[in-house]
């Protein structure tokens, strides 16, 4: 007959393993915690990846999202047996980019930091191009006027006299012809 204490320990051990597996599976299906940062040049996703090595991680960038899969290996400790496997070995998830994000997937980079985070940087596609202006003859015309603006010819041939000056000049010319 089995000792009641040993039976209780055995049942407790099996329950702990079952609970540990359930927690590990729940963690696997939980959304991957991540921060998404944005600069003028790129997006940066920061994902927790404790205990992962580069060979444990797969990153794929598609259709406005960053997909991350982490399959870690649980280390065995000599002289110890796992009683409660509570840490998930596999973490899967994705990080959504903002709608309309125009990215350059070919130049995306990912790196694991020493403190257990995965940093994925995806450059933005530069839209628009600065177009040089060919000044041509406009430089010579603009140099004649200090303001940088060309004078506009209004069609009068009165040598640039303004409206008041033109009226006076016309009156003076009329008076001289009477004498």
Automatic annotation (TrEMBL):
Pfam families: HSP20. Residues 23-141 form the SHSP domain. Gene3D superfamilies: 2.60.40.790. Residues 136-159 have a biased composition (Acidic residues). Residues 1-29, 124-179 are annotated as: Disordered. Belongs to the small heat shock protein (HSP20) family. This is Molecular chaperone Hsp20. The lineage of its organism: Archaea, Methanobacteriati, Methanobacteriota, Stenosarchaea group, Halobacteria.
